[in-house]
Amino acid sequence: MKSFVCILTIIALLGSCSPLSKEQYLDQYKAFVDDVTERGPHFSDAEWQRANAEFARFSNELYAEYKHQLTFEEALRVAGYKLQFNATRAGVEMNKFYHSYLKDDIDSLKVSLKYYVENKMDDDIAQLLEEAKRISDELYREVKKLLAELNEEAK
Q1: Which residues of the chain have pLDDT under 70?
Q2: pTM for this one?
């Protein structure tokens, strides 16, 4: 957490003290996104607010300043940084959603399923096979009866 705050502080100081060169912009953007990717899953809400603000600065304000200077390859790198940041943020949000809304239900379902497999599934399969045989026998009798009726009508 401290190194993240330090990186954000350094980036903010560099951005406010002097204009970035295109190369500095690309290097700092990459360092920022790499740091968020590595440590973002452990960020507090306040750290995510700061990271989102810094991402907006890189993606909007600074990008607008340098987009006309970027080569095609550099523009692709910037797009990759945006994708990397957003994928990290989405992964963190999905993880929060999972732990907040799904984990307990899935854990409970696993326990119930394990109990079912270990205690009741064999009985249900046997019953299902008996029912399938009964239906098959009924179907056989009905087809045999229908064939007999067709033979009778054909005479």
Answers
A1: 1-19
A2: 0.59
